[in-house]
Amino acid sequence: MKLNIMEKAKEGNKLLLSLVIFSVFVVLYVLYVTVVGLISSTCPKAYDPPVLEQTSTDQEKAIVIANSLTYALDQQLNSPFGWLPNDILFVPKILDNSTNYQKGVIYATRPASDIIAKTVSRYGKNDTLDSRLVDATSRYFVYSSDVWGFWFIYDAEGKYRSGIKNWLSWAQSVDTNAKNAGIYNVKSDDVYAILKYCNQMLEYALGNLNDVNIGHFDSDNQIYFAKGICSVVENVLRGLIAVDSSVIERGGNENVSAAIERLTSIRDFNPTYVFAGGSKKGDTMVPNHVASIARHIDIASNRINDIMTSMEK
To answer: How far apart are CA 142 and CA 136, in angstroms?
Structure first.
């Protein structure tokens, strides 16, 4: 009888210990997710390129272009909790705003790398592309955003960092006597092609937001994905303006300023709670944040289109 009581007491103690361990795990997990949510930012600073003089070297210009392309991605990789889409603790399902923002960043970085590598880094279309930029575009940035890897081998962060490193290596090698010295050559056609990329990215983001089937609880995902795209576009545009004065001279200072202003508004857009009022599946009696950010994107896209039209003349 006494033995049975002792066995039951032991079983009770084991159950209690299990409950305590489970409770501690839950509390730590909630704390972890809360801290990630509080620290992760979907409104980081835009790339602020240095003011380049007319005597600036091709290497200085190449560094600005490389940084403008990789700045948004580098920000997210170096944020306190790093790359979230491949987090194995289910954070992407909970903190979907930050996760979708980062997905938007890599989505827009991929074609930017392709377009800029094919334009500014060679003299003619038939010239060979720099192998570092080819690897950055077709090996590293194309890596899936949600791959965690095995003991940090073949993880998304590692691949993206390699891509960023390759772009910086190319830029720093321009104007040097190194065997693998890079080429920097920006023509009017190249400027136009990069502006076209910016416009196409904004149109893509706008198309997603204009989907009438966006539900109330899906609207925040689309908004923050669009913000991620726009952050890359804004940085690339700022870098292009810094290295080539023709964007303002031929495209018009008013158009450039208006486009940057709208992209800045998109970057700063971060409501406490996202409403999808007025959409087919939204709530008609509440604010329509989807339409609000879509309008900013539409105006920025139109302004960039005006710049391109002016440069065609």
So the answer is: 8
Residue 157 within a domain: yes
In a domain, residue 18? The reply is: no
- Mean of the pLDDT values across residues 55-61? 94
Q: Are the beta carbons of 156 and 149 closer than 8 angstroms?
A: yes
| Helical H segments across the chain, by residue range | 2-39, 58-77, 91-94, 96-119, 131-135, 156-173, 188-209, 219-243, 246-251, 253-268, 289-312
Does residue 305 form part of some domain? yes
Residues 6+ apart with CB under 8 A from 204: 229
| Range(s) of the domain holding residue 74 | 40-312
In terms of Cα–Cα distance, which of 191, 162, 197 is closest to 77?
162
% of the chain residues with pLDDT over 90: 58
Query: Is 290 within 8 Å of 208 (Cβ atoms)?
Result: no
Q: Classify residue 14: in a domain, yes or no.
A: no
Q: d(Cα 203, Cα 108) in Å, to the nearest integer? A: 12
Q: Which residues contact 229 (CB under 8 A, 6 or more apart)?
A: 104, 105, 107, 108, 201, 202, 204, 205
The total domain count for the chain is 1
Per-residue pLDDT, averaged over 103-132, amounts to 94
Over residues 156-190, the pLDDT tens digits come to 999 999 999 999 999 999 999 888 899 999 999 99
Give the CA angle between residues 287, 224, 297 to the nearest 5°: 70
pLDDT tens-digit map of 122-148: 988 888 999 999 999 999 999 998 887
Q: What is the mean pLDDT of the chain?
A: 84
pLDDT range class, residue 113, cuts 50, 70, 90: very high
Q: What is the pLDDT of residue 76?
A: 94
Query: Contact, 141 vs 83, CB < 8 A?
Result: no
How is residue 288 written in tokens? 């329509």
Q: How far is CA 170 from CA 151, 175, 214, 220, 248, in A?
A: 29, 10, 42, 37, 27
